[in-house]
Amino acid sequence: MTGRYELSDQRWQMIEDIVSPPQTIGRPRRDDRQMLNGVLWILCSGAQWRDLPERYGPWKTVYQRFRQWRDDGTFDRILARLHLRLREDGTMDLDTWMVDSTSIRATRSASGAGKKGGSIEPRDHALGRSRGGLTTKIHMLCDSHGFPLAFSLSAGQRADSIYLTELLEKVRLPGRSGRPRKRSRYIVADKGYDSDALRHYCTRYGMRPIIPYRRMHRRPKPGLPHRFDRPKYRQRNVVERLFGWLKEKRRLNTRYDKLASSFKAMVTLACIERCMRADFSDRT
Hints:
By secondary structure, the chain is of the alpha/beta class.
């Protein structure tokens, strides 16, 4: 019997070879499943690392293991594994994708990480000032079933439309054979993504943008013949429901992490949990 927030035996078997590879040298390390369950407890409870229950081991060890998995790409490999299983199982929708963003309020403890940045860490640490104060934006791309495909972080004052292309370029849905899937048939988004450049980008790659026009003093230009599909646009609430589910993870409802890479790892872990809800083990 597993405790609250902990992985079941079936879900652990899906990712065990990635999280806990065989150890050949060095002294034995603490149980990786125990460490991962500790990280999940932090994600869901929103507590500080020092408040981690003793059953997960020393909090410093759990935190160091989290940093290791964050830096070596373990969380990204797990998510790629789950994307593969979702695609093979036929659960993932490859035709209709939707995009949106949400703002996450950051606490005072999230600021002050320095301005050096780097190749991985952005200079502003994905923090910015907006109407809500110090915030971070999560830009999310998902399918019509609410499975996250790709996401990006930005400062809270950045515009949504400039990240749609970046999200689409990040998508790599692997299959057993052939090239990874990178495009869909429909892209559904709100009017915040309305721009001629994005519409031309979608048309160039064979995607149909379902994006309403803003109330502006301009008319659709020649070369943009797509009519607005209102029934398809109503599916956009899927990504809003996904954000509602993600924000139930208290570590995402408010940002406490100074580094964008740490907050990104938490978002990735929440996406892993969402993809695991497909319950592959019940079908195999």
